[in-house]
What we know:
By secondary structure, the chain is of the alpha+beta class. The protein has one domain. It is built from 3 helices and 4 strands; from the N terminus they run ββααββα. The chain has a two-stranded antiparallel ribbon. Strands 3-4 form a two-stranded antiparallel ribbon. A hairpin with a 4-residue loop joins β3 and β4. The longest helix has 11 residues. It is globular.
Amino acid sequence: MSQRPEGDVWANLFEFPLIETEQLLTQEELVETDAFKQHFGSSEVYQIGKTVKHVLSHQNIFANFYRIIKPVDLEQKKANWCYYNSENLDKLAKHKLIFTFIDKYMLN
């Protein structure tokens, strides 16, 4: 998880590592992006659920969530990511998009 910086609309809230794109990508297109390769290398991924539309006052977000099967080596952890056991995620402040995902797919 990473914490959004000060000055952000979701300042200090936690979220999963993300890759933002201008358009919706297929899973095959996503794993070919430089951002995915930089964060996750050649990890296996599986989409969880369907695309979620999240409406904000200033934009619509279309989000896909993925499970990373072969994560980055622990020695290559990202400096701005925080690592938590899944049973501790409910203790973190999260924005609605992340909260809803965790409630639907991780706590059941």
